[in-house]
Amino acid sequence: MTPPPIRAVIADDQMMVRQGFTVLLNAEPDIEVVGQAVNGLDAVAKVAELAPDVVLMDIRMPELGGIEATRRITSAEGSAVKVLVLTTFDLDEYVYEALRAGASGFLLKDASADELAHAVRVVAAGDALLSPNITKRLIVEFSRTAGAPRPPLKARVGELTERETEVLTLIAGGLSNAEISRQLIVAEQTVKTHVGRILVKLGVRDRTQAAVFAYESGLVRPAGL
Questions:
Q1: Angle ∠(93,94,98) on CA atoms, nearest 5
Q2: Per-residue pLDDT tens for 7-43?
Q3: Segment holding 55, helix H or strand E
Q4: H helices within 89-225, ranges in order?
Q5: pLDDT for the residue 198
Q6: Rounded to 5 degrees, what angle do the CA atoms 16, 17, 21 make?
Q7: What are the residue ranges of CATH 3.40.50.2300 in the chain?
Q8: Beta bridge partners of 85
Q9: Mind listing the GO biological process terms from this record (predicted)?
């Protein structure tokens, strides 16, 4: 049986962006755009009404910005919605705040149709978008502003096994399951099992939040710090 399509909502105050992304995504057999939102308040309402799998969220919008909308969506009780942040610049300062607010990844607005569809699939699968290349820079830059390690988070990292800690460190470095598998010389399914246990023990939604946790807890420090 063919699985149901990934349900997506596009939140952007620019009509051309909403319509363009809708056309591109609806051309994919496994993705369906079920709604569009013109600002953050509209996005929160659309998510409550339509229960999509993924929201493509612009950051700068009137009435309610994308960061606060992301926070409200991801913190809602029982929410499993993934938020993919849309940005114009690869080092947009607000992206760091969006990651902290619960976003699962980000995508540049000039991404190709293939990159757009891939990003939606990755985020919907819960793997989170920790690549391509600029994402590593984003997480490192984010962690520079995170301040001193937070003791409660450090204590939760202490609940991980030695192998889980090793896997978390590699996740924070932006490695995929396949890359971690090769580096640790273990099966990729074993890596997936470790990742699942890490998410449960840390109480985080996905790999992106696990990476942010690794930096905020002090487990991983950016190079040069």
A1: 135
A2: 999 999 999 999 999 999 999 999 999 999 999 999 9
A3: strand 54-58
A4: 93-101, 113-124, 134-144, 151-157, 162-172, 177-184, 188-202, 207-216
A5: 93
A6: 115
A7: 6-129
A8: 57, 106
A9: phosphorelay signal transduction system; regulation of DNA-templated transcription
- How many Å apart are CA 121 and CA 53, to the nearest integer? 10
* CA geometry: angle 222, 135, 172, nearest 5 deg: 45
pLDDT of residue 154: 67
Residue 50 near residue 35 (C-beta atoms within 8 A): yes
User: H-type helices in 40-147, by residue range?
Assistant: 40-50, 66-75, 93-101, 113-124, 134-144
* 225, amino acid identity: L
Contact 47, 73 (CB under 8 A): yes
Share of the chain above pLDDT 70, in %: 83
What is the spatial distance between Cα 143 and Cα 215, in angstroms, rounded to a whole number? 6
pLDDT tens per residue, range 193-204: 999 999 989 988
- Architecture of the domain spanning 149-216: Orthogonal Bundle (1.10)
Residue type at position 81: V
In terms of DSSP bridges, do strands 54-58 and 82-87 run parallel, antiparallel, or are they unpaired? parallel
Place of tokens 């099992």: 193
Tokens of 189: 């399914």
Write out the two tokens for 105. 């990844």
Question: Which class is domain 6-129?
Answer: alpha beta
